[in-house]
Amino acid sequence: MNIILFDNQTRAHLLPFTFTRPVAEIRIGITTIREKWERAFKIECSFFTQDYLAELFPCIISDDNVFIAGNLLPSKQLVDTIKALSIGEVLKDPQNNVLALRAGSFAAFSALENFNTIVYPHEFISINAKHELFVLNNTVIINDFQELTKRRKSHILSASNTLIGNPKNLFIEAGAQIEGAIINCETGPVYIGKNAQIMEGSCVRGPFALLDESVVKMGAKIYGATTIGPYCKVGGELNNVVMFGYSNKAHDGYLGNAVIGAWCNIGAGSDASNLKNNYGEVAQWDYASQSYENTGLQFCGLMMGDHSKCSIGSMFNTGTVIGVGCNLFGSSFHRSFVPSFSTGNREKGYASYSIEKVLESERAMFLRRGMEMEEDYVKMLTHCRWLQPTDDRK
Question: How high is the pLDDT of residue 251?
Answer without folding.
Answer: 96
